Amino acid sequence: MTAQPFVPPPYPYDRLDALAKIAATHDGGVIDLSIGTPCDPPSAAVVAALSSSNTERGYPASIGSEPLRSAARSWMQRRFDVDVPIGQVAACVGSKEFVATTPQYMKLRRPDRDTVLFPAVAYPTYEMGATLAGCRAVAVPMNARGGIDLSAINAADAARALMLWVNSPSNPTGALDDLAAAATWGRAHGVPVFSDECYVEFTWSRAGESILQHGVDGVVALHSLSKRSNLAGVRVAFYAGDADIVNYLKEVRKHVGMMVPGPAQAAGVVALNDDAHVAVQREVYERRLARTAHVLSKWSGITIAMPEGGFYLWFDARDGWEFAERLARDGGALVSPGDFYGAGGANNVRVAVVQPDERIELLAKRLGV
Questions:
Q1: In Å, how far from its chain's centre is CA 48?
Q2: Which of 3.40.50.2300, 3.90.1150.10, 3.40.630.30, 3.60.15.10 would CATH assign to domain 12-42+276-367?
Q3: Nearest-CA neighbor of 185 among 171, 164, 212?
Q4: Distance in angstroms (rounded) separating the CA atoms of residues 212 and 78
Q5: pTM for the model
Q6: d(C-alpha 299, C-alpha 256), whole Å
């Protein structure tokens, strides 16, 4: 059989263009609750660090500067009470590029394995990263709470697995996974577990958790400043964990030129060393989640619960696209139909509470709530 060329599928959010035109007919324009782009300003100290680091002329270290890695290490100590050696911490250019590129590097490391496991309802880049690496992308079913169901992984897929992605708090479901169980499963099957923890600062049902709290052997945690510190445009993230895996990725990524710009690294140091602004942001998101859930519940008649974590509302609307179109017409708001996150989410809708309070109140007014 002749191999077929890869044709990139439509980018999920590009599919919302028609609904955006409908929403834009409202006075005051579109209220965009579709993409998880922070709207609140970063701290003044972070902005100052961006403009005063004097690092823009030289090439930055691919693994991250010593101050950035030290700040990441200190944050993990404060946040999770874990002490990861600085040699097992490295920077990446935002978490998305790490998710998208790591399977190809892991495939080179283990050419005898070809399967990437990931949650069936999830951020689409887990699947795309597998596809771009020429791997089998195998979706693992979800449990009733919206987390990954490790017991549903069949033995044949486990034997071929190159890596397993877990995401807690989950995007889009908000579920908090059992990361101890994920680490145990990975070690039992000889499968590295990569834990995307970029929403861990925003948990509502219990304290945030890192897979690193259950040992570093065979696991890698991925963290980002995009959500935590409202720095999505700066592209600062880091990964930490198993010494062999982290050192391998550090070396490969040097050859690819994956470098966080120096001024961004300087800003990252300031952001990671400041927990106060995160506490303020937590209160903002918790308030917006509760208010938006109330508004949409009253308008739609659907009971919309608070998530366990993250800043998304995720609920069964029976038909995600029909709900999204109705909300665009009635409220001028753009939300994400659940099939963006896998076929298992087709009935659902994801609402990102990333608009200022006054825009959420405008939505309430439009909907008569």
A1: 26
A2: 3.90.1150.10
A3: 164
A4: 13
A5: 0.96
A6: 50
Total length of the chain: 369
Joined together, the tokens standing for residue 9 give 């599928």
Helix (H, G, I), strand (E, B) or coil at 166: strand
Q: How many other CB atoms are there within 10 angstroms of residue 72's CB atom?
A: 26
- For β-strands 237-241 and 89-92, DSSP reports them as antiparallel
Contacts of 366 (CB under 8 A, 6+ apart): 26, 330, 331, 332, 333
Separation between Cα atoms, residue 366 and residue 369, nearest integer Å: 8
What is the average pLDDT across 29-43? 96
Residue with the two structure tokens 């087709």:
346
Report pLDDT digits (tens) over 61-86.
999 999 999 999 999 999 999 999 99
For 315, what's the count of Cα atoms within 13 Å in the CB-facing half-sphere? 21
Return the H-helix or E-strand segment holding 194: strand 193-196
**Alpha carbon distance 357, 292 (integer Å):** 10
